[in-house]
Amino acid sequence: MSVSIRPATDDDLEALRVLLRETWHQTYDSLYGETEVQSIAADWFSIEAMEERLVRPDATFLVADGKPEIAGMVFAVLRDDEVVAVEQLYVAPSRQSQGVGKALLDAALSSFGTSRSAEVELPAANRRAVAFFSREGFETLGLDPDAAARATVVMERNPR
Angle formed by the axes of helices 47-54 and 13-32, to 10°? Predict the structure, then answer.
């Protein structure tokens, strides 16, 4: 089953909210606990928060449209006109390991041009995500010193 990558729209937000909550619960309940995941998801993935992302001029917000469902999403921001920060990249649990994440990442990075480096910060305990970004050419820079009890790994990919 293929997907098409396209800009997110207002019409996608409810489906994205459901997808993001499902993905976060599957990935992080065992790390943070169901209650904390629910709290984080309610804040980060609210319709209002996603509406703000849709209109950011320094960002790209894309979805993988699997017709009829949204298979994944990516939100990336251009920082200091030099580094693309991949702030969110999530794929529906049923669509993982099918190339959706790679397609989303490639589309997001190419929307900013190929001459910029890219960076992602994610929980070190999310080994599947760390492995994905490693396969995509990201190298670990180290742990975020502000991460406190939850180690956060910072990874970077230089222009190809």
Answer: 120
- What is the DSSP code (8-state) at residue 10? G
Tokens for 109?
């990075």
- CA angle centred on 90, ends 126 and 47, rounded to 5°: 120
Q: Does some domain include residue 155?
A: no
**Do the bridges between strand 152-157 and strand 117-123 make them parallel or antiparallel, or are there none, so unpaired?**
antiparallel
Domain that holds residue 10: 4-113
Residue 129 lies in a domain: no
Residue 85 lies in a domain: yes
Decide: residue 69, CB within 10 A, 0-12 exposed, 13-18 middle, 19+ buried: middle
Q: Residues 6 or more apart from 76 whose CB is under 8 A from it?
A: 59, 60, 84, 85, 86, 87, 108, 109, 111, 112, 118
| Each residue's pLDDT tens digit, 71-130 | 999 999 998 878 899 999 999 988 888 899 999 999 999 998 866 789 998 887 788 888
